[in-house]
Every structure is written in structure tokens, then in C-alpha cells.
Amino acid sequence: MKLNLQFDFLVDKEKNTITLRREFAAPRQLVWDAHTKSELLDQWFAPRPLTTRTKTMDFRDGGHWHYAMVEASGTEYWGRLDYIKIQPIDHYTALDAFSDANGSINPNMPRAHWDVTFQDLAKHALVQTIVTYNSLNELESVIKMNMQEGMTSTLGRLDDLLLTLTK
Known about the structure:
Belongs to the AHA1 family. Residues 26-162 form the Activator of Hsp90 ATPase homologue 1/2-like C-terminal domain. InterPro entries: ASHA1/2-like_C, START-like_dom_sf. An eight-stranded antiparallel beta sheet has the order 1-2-8-7-6-5-4-3. The two termini are 14 Å apart. With 167 residues, it is α+β, with helices and mostly antiparallel strands. It is 25% helix and 41% strand.
């Protein structure tokens, strides 16, 4: 059975932001865990057909998540999320960046500020992510990299995982 879950992908070129609002058919605590525990992130945080592999994760204020999205051929695309402030099961802020395998940030690629909020919606959870870029040029470059399609696929994988975890 396919549920009709909210999914908004809103681009604001005046504020250089992308706002994602996504409803999940799972309790907020479980959705929070899926966003904050590497063993769960590794099961969904990449668009199909890529997979995710965590190299290091330290989920705390000032900590980070260093991971690779991996193609079937073995090609790796490295990323790093630096956590700024965490308020468990409600909210976290972080800086997202492309990196190399050692965790060094790629200065030639866009870096974004993520503001992620988790709310209860009856039996579901709503996650709002506001992604802010430093410039319109950076925002437009990630849009050209198919961010909307990538996030649609990635969040669909999270739906699939949550279904297995709530049975």
C-alpha cells in the first residue's frame, strides 16, 4: 500500500535556500534515529543505486559524520557533515560539504548550512530541512546536479527502511 505522504521541495532564489518538508509513516523517535545513527544512515542516505558507507561518526555538538556514497563499480563520492547544535529528537544544525576520503573539505564545491527539525504528526513524523547556500550560484549548481531527483530517491529509501523497522 502506497501512502500519500507530504513531500515539498521548495527553492527560494532570493534566500539561496532549498526547503524540504517530508512526512514519514513512522514515529518521530525512529525517524530521528534514522537521521542520526550511522548504522541506519548507511541503509538509506544515497539515491539509488548508490550505497552509503560511514567512515566516522561523532553525533554531538562539534562532531561530524564522514561518509562515502558508493557506486556498484566502487567509485566513491565523499561527504562530511559537521554538527553545530543538537537538540535530541527535535532539531539539529550542521554544515554539509563535499570532501575527500580523509575528510578534507573540497573548497571548489558548494557548502551548505542545514537546519533540520523533527515534529510529530499524529502517527507520523514530519522532517523539515532548510538548506542554505552562500550564493545563488551555489544553489543553482546543486539544482543542476539533480538534487531534487536525488533527494526524492534518497527519501524513498528511508520510507522503505522505516517500513521494515516498524513491522
